[in-house]
Design goal:
alpha/beta, Arginase, Chain A, 10 strands, 26% helix, eight-stranded parallel sheet, manganese
Length: 261
């Protein structure tokens, strides 16, 4: 099952599908967002719709969006389906900020922290998301950390590794939610990223790491955040080429490899 949730926060990205493989999505998920609401309350309908789609998938789904926060719906959907996954979070950023510590208030900097149980009243309770033990979270290649994030990660039990070192030995046991924010890639290899961070792995290294994790046969869902600006030019078609590699590779991993009951 291939699901597209074309949002960055509450901004609908109608052109996101144009940079994916042709006719890739089995379903495009949109939601009516409550007028007058803001923050997590406004976003909850998107994540609820994603959770419903993931929970109803008969095989391991792939979810593509323009924002890491959509992964909250992917995780909630797996849990609704009776799956209790660990999370592999490949991202240039830590995404472990809080409403109290974030200088910008950017919600996209918080989803991994919310998966670990932070402030369930904000959105987790609304979408039925249960927290995951920190020791079952793996943060991969996060190199742009705000001071509060670095302080939290110093004492948290979240595992840390790099893209090139990511293999089965770095993974928790059991089913996995594999999340990739494409800004983990060095911006020299991928143009137009919203929040580029120098010094990252190449696009080829990220594709290889994704394949290594999928080859374990334990990926319950693959969640891809295409965090480029759709309005930014891509004259060489690098973004579409990367999407082709990640989304049109041999999908045997996405069969009935994880018991969904």
């Amino acid at each position: 099952m291939r699901l597209l949730a074309p949002y960055h926060q509450d901004d609908l990205l109608p052109t996101l599908s144009e940079e994916l493989p042709p006719d890739w999505a089995d379903a495009i998920i949109t939601a009516d967002l409550p007028a007058g609401a803001d923050g997590w309350e406004r976003l909850a309908p998107i994540y609820s719709a994603v959770a419903e789609g993931v929970a109803g998938a008969q095989v391991s789904p792939t979810v593509v969006s323009g924002c890491c926060c959509v992964s909250l719906g992917t995780l909630a959907g797996l849990q609704r389906a009776g799956i209790d996954p660990a999370v592999v979070w490949i991202d240039a950023h830590g995404d472990v900020q809080t409403m109290e510590t974030s200088a910008s208030g950017y919600l996209g900097g918080m989803p991994l922290r919310m998966m670990a149980g932070y402030r369930p009243d904000l959105v987790a309770d609304e979408i039925g998301l249960r927290p995951i033990q920190e020791s079952r979270l793996v943060l991969v290649d996060a190199r742009d950390l705000d001071e509060p994030e670095a302080a939290y990660l110093e004492t948290a039990q979240i595992r840390r590794t790099s893209v090139v070192e990511l293999d089965e030995s770095a993974l928790p046991d059991g089913p996995l939610l594999l999340h990739v924010d494409l800004d983990v890639i060095d911006p020299a290899d991928l143009p137009g990223l919203r929040f580029p961070v120098d010094g990252g792995p190449s696009a080829a290294q990220v594709v290889e790491a994704v394949r290594r994790v999928q080859a374990t046969g334990r990926v319950a869902a693959f969640d891809l955040a295409a965090t480029w600006d759709p309005a930014a030019p891509d004259p060489d078609g690098l973004r579409r080429s990367l999407a082709d590699e990640l989304l049109n590779q041999d999908a045997s991993w996405a069969g009935a490899i994880v018991d969904r009951r």
